UniProtKB/TrEMBL annotation:
GO molecular function, one term: lyase activity
UniProt keyword list: Endonuclease, Hydrolase, Lyase, Manganese, Metal-binding, Nuclease, RNA-binding
Catalytic function, reaction form: ribonucleotidyl-uridine-RNA = a 5'-end dephospho-uridine-RNA + a 3'-end 2',3'-cyclophospho-ribonucleotide-RNA
Cofactor(s) in the UniProt record: Mn(2+)
Family: Belongs to the ENDOU family.
EndoU domain boundaries: 7-284
Subunit structure of this chain's protein: Monomer.
One family name in Pfam for this protein: XendoU
Enzyme category, top tier: lyase
The name this protein goes by in its record: Uridylate-specific endoribonuclease
UniProt feature coiled coil, ranges: none
UniProt cross-references to InterPro entries, sorted A to Z: ENDOU, EndoU-like, EndoU_C
Organism of this sequence: Cyprinus carpio carpio
């Protein structure tokens, strides 16, 4: 997949199909409410002090009963406490954690979102038609451990970095691009939302936007700029990032797509045969910005 500034129409079409199939996406204002508050301030590189432009949490409300009633969310949440926070500390996967990984993938593979993604990847020659082989491929991409730090053992995987978050030797936040994890960390006072990052010369984000650029602190460390989908299902994110990852052999892939009303740049870093990181970057969220 070549890097380019224009919209990738084929990929946009596929992702819009996934978007329409994402019946487990939460509805803003009904299933959850976010409180954007102020614009995040500048944080100098290597510094962990940030002006707090948001006194209240980002998530004012989430329908937890609905979350717990949907299999993919339930199994996703079960994975969030399975990892060591700091790189350089080897991960030890228990039998129970291994089972949780498989239960999550099994639940994801039953959704129409992932079935659609699988069909597309088969057509592109990037996945086998056998569901068991595809599941094994997904496992390697997301859950196979690798060594991110030069010291210690296998200390990371795609799922941990993207969805759970980790720190670089306890000094820098990496990953954590998932709204469910952010909500859970915020609920337990582990994460402090500092404000939104607005795009240059653009309107502020809306509280019903499904993508947000934001700033936060976690265990005393500040992440100056981050981005994540808001409200989308785990299967949508796994499907989207898997497709972009498998369509490119490059170390870094940046592709521009239009999904629903959002103009996005999808960024995926490769770590061997696994995902190193992946996240969406908001370019525009309404027609006035095009």
């Amino acid at each position: 997949m070549a890097r380019g500034h224009g919209i990738n129409q084929e990929l946009s079409d596929v992702l819009n199909e996934l978007w329409k199939l994402d019946v487990n996406r939460m509805k803003p204002g009904k299933d959850y409410k976010i409180n954007l508050q102020g614009k995040a301030g500048f944080v100098a590189e290597g510094r962990n002090n940030a002006r707090d432009s948001a006194r209240a949490p980002l998530f004012a409300y989430i329908n937890e009963n609905k979350l717990k009633s949907i299999a993919t969310y339930t199994h996703f949440i079960n994975l969030l406490d399975n990892y060591e926070m700091s790189t350089g500390v080897a991960e030890h996967v228990t039998k129970e954690e291994l089972q949780e990984n498989h239960l999550f993938l099994d639940a994801v593979l039953k959704t129409e979102v992932m079935k659609c993604a699988h069909r597309y990847l088969i057509r592109k020659g990037r996945a086998k038609s056998d569901p068991a082989q595809f599941k094994s491929q997904l496992y390697d991409i997301w859950f196979k451990l690798y060594r991110r730090s030069k010291s210690g053992g296998e200390d990371s995987c795609g799922f941990e970095h993207v969805f759970v978050g980790e720190t670089k030797h306890g000094k820098e936040i990496m990953g954590l691009h998932n709204w469910v994890q952010f909500y859970h960390k915020e609920k337990h006072n582990h994460v402090d939302y500092k404000g939104y990052n607005a795009r240059k010369n653009k309107d502020t984000p809306d509280e019903d936007d499904h993508i947000l650029n934001l700033q936060f602190s976690w265990n005393g460390l500040v992440k100056p700029v981050s981005s994540c989908f808001i409200g989308v299902s785990p299967e949508f994110e796994v499907a989207l990032f898997t497709i972009v990852f498998l369509l490119s052999d490059g170390h870094v892939t940046n592709v521009t797509v239009k999904v629903d009303e959002y103009l996005l740049e999808i960024v995926v870093y490769r770590f061997g045969h696994a995902i190193g990181t992946s996240y969406p970057k908001m370019i525009s969220s309404n027609n006035r910005d095009f």
